[in-house]
Design a protein that fits this description.
Layout (H helix, E strand, L loop, with lengths): L7 E10 L2 E11 L4 E5 L6 H8 L7 E6 L9 E4 L11 H6 L10 H16 L16 H13 L8 E5 L7 H16 L3 E5 L3 H7 L2 E6 L2 E7 L5 H8 L18 E4 L5 E3 L3 E5 L6 H13 L10 E5 L2 H5 L6 H6 L7 E2 L2 E2 L1 H15 L15 H13 L5 E5 L7 H16 L3 E5 L3 H4 L4 E6 L2 E7 L5 H8 L3 H4 L1
Parallel strand pairs: 3-7, 3-8, 5-6, 6-7, 12-17, 12-18, 13-16, 16-17
Antiparallel strand pairs: 1-2, 1-4, 8-9, 10-11, 14-15, 18-19
Length: 471
């Protein structure tokens, strides 16, 4: 029996942006019933490859061939790393944007039916109304809506779904629901390109793994041909040993104390865990705003913030990399009431080197960077302020495994120097790096874990009201 024709086939594809070459000689095909895990560090060329497969960008060299003639006719759909929903429209109204067959007087009813069905199938018990305005939804539910839209029925039917960091804002239970749906979709003949820096998710769903580095495909083999270590090495980064060793808090001086019972000492890394949407982000926002709402600029600032939702809370999209990086520290760059541009340039150059931002010109627009490198700018912005308290709201969204290791080391180093870190993450594994973890449930602290009691099992138990397991 002959194998099915590929949904899309790339033949010697290259893509250049002026003198910058983002892709070089990429030959790749995706067949029905295949889940292609696409991995590589930030800036490896994954986003450019996705933009070519979806038809957003034409290749500079080579060609992309589709089973249906065009990406739309071939049933190619995408969930981008930076979500693209219209915040002023309802969930159902957003579905009409990609599904052009929703026309006529009765289109709203059809849209509601389609999106409800997709949400029910991918994320049971999702609690999202079809008539809810998207801007009123938390980030995790917005991501769930965009994922459901990609799998929703409607012409042409989905045949290849590209998922770019699809679980970056989802907690473990929602991520598991998505991975199970990917398996079902593949078993029904669908194809998926799955891009994630969470490697255990790649191994959980991929039938084949392609590794990219510097705009090229450097390895392509069945998923079973890799171990985690060999995959990280293929990406060009040697996995560190001993990164999870428990650290000792630097001081017993209390820096944070709230009526709800959240405490943090100087030099301590405190995690906020639990299922997404249970009050962690709100708790962080209150803590941060209480310390930074004074209209007078102070140096050093009392607290600095690292956003996970870059597009909404992080980057200034029309500003340069340098301006984005120096923004939070302008008070300490003042001289005679004006910003000292020479000091600003030194600050930017220092942090570009320290945190490894991949650019040779910080005067370029921030959006010229990959998502992971944009996130590095936000880390540098916060750390450069000298603030004694760093508040991090799920900051590792879309950050590759190598960069994560570097950032983990930097966080531990900053804490050892006396800074207090408050860290919310949807990844339970990251919370095991903390000195103390508060598990939130229904807007309240359900459990406090310390030391060796900080385990994924105990956090999950506390999240689901299984108190005896978390004790």
């Amino acid at each position: 029996m002959e194998s099915a024709a590929p949904v899309v086939s790339l033949q010697a594809v290259g893509r250049a942006f002026g003198a910058v070459r983002a892709l070089s000689d990429v030959t790749l095909s995706i067949a029905p019933g295949e889940v292609l895990g696409l991995v590589g560090h930030n800036g490896a060329g994954k986003s450019t490859l996705v933009n070519i497969v979806t038809g957003v960008l034409p290749p500079s060299e080579g060609q992309a061939i589709y089973a249906g003639g065009t990406p739309r006719e071939a049933g190619v759909r995408v969930v981008a790393q930076e979500l693209a929903l219209a915040p002023n429209l309802t969930v159902a109204e957003n579905l009409r944007i990609p599904q052009r067959d929703l026309r006529g007087l009765m289109w709203r009813g059809k849209a509601r039916t389609r999106i409800r069905s997709a949400l029910d199938e991918v994320f049971p018990d999702h609690g999202i109304g079809a008539d809810t305005v998207v801007g009123d939804l938390p980030l995790a539910k917005r991501q769930m809506v965009e994922i459901a839209m990609a799998f929703a029925e409607g012409g042409p039917a989905p045949r290849l779904v590209i998922l770019d960091e699809p679980t970056s804002s989802l907690d473990a239970s929602r991520a598991d629901q998505l991975l199970r749906h990917v398996h079902r979709f593949r078993e029904c003949g669908g194809a998926v390109i799955f891009i994630s820096h969470i490697l255990h998710e790649v191994f959980a769903v991929a039938t084949r793994v392609v590794v990219m580095r510097d705009g090229r495909v450097v390895d392509d083999r069945p998923a079973g041909g890799y171990t985690r270590t060999s995959l990280v090495e293929a990406m060009g980064h040697v996995a560190r040993e001993g990164a999870r060793e428990r650290r000792i808090a630097a001081s017993g001086v209390e820096v944070v104390s709230t009526p709800e019972g959240l405490r943090a000492g100087q030099g301590e890394i405190v995690g906020l865990a639990g299922l997404a949407g249970h009050g962690q982000a709100e708790a962080l926002a209150r803590l941060y705003l209480e310390r930074t709402s004074d209209w007078r600029g102070r140096s050093p600032v009392p607290a600095a913030f690292v956003a996970g939702d870059r597009a909404r809370d992080g980057v200034m999209p029309i500003w340069s990399i340098a301006r984005n990086l120096s923004l939070a520290g302008l008070a300490m760059l003042r001289r005679a009431g004006f910003v000292d541009r020479a000091r600003e340039a030194r600050l930017v150059a220092d942090w570009r080197e320290r945190i490894g931002i991949r650019t040779d010109d910080t005067g370029r627009p921030i959006l010229s960077l990959s998502g992971g490198n944009q996130q590095k700018v936000l880390f540098a912005r916060a750390l450069a302020t000298g603030a004694p308290l760093i508040v991090m709201d799920d900051p590792m969204r879309g950050v590759d495994v190598g960069t994560k290791g570097d950032v983990y080391e930097m966080i531990r180093s900053e804490a050892a120097a006396g800074r207090t870190i408050l860290w919310y993450s949807t990844e339970a594994e990251e919370m095991t790096l903390c000195d103390r973890v508060y598990v939130f449930r229904n807007g309240r602290i359900a459990a406090e874990l310390r030391g060796e009691k900080i385990t994924e099992e105990r956090m999950l138990a506390a999240s689901f009201d299984m108190g005896e397991a978390a004790a």
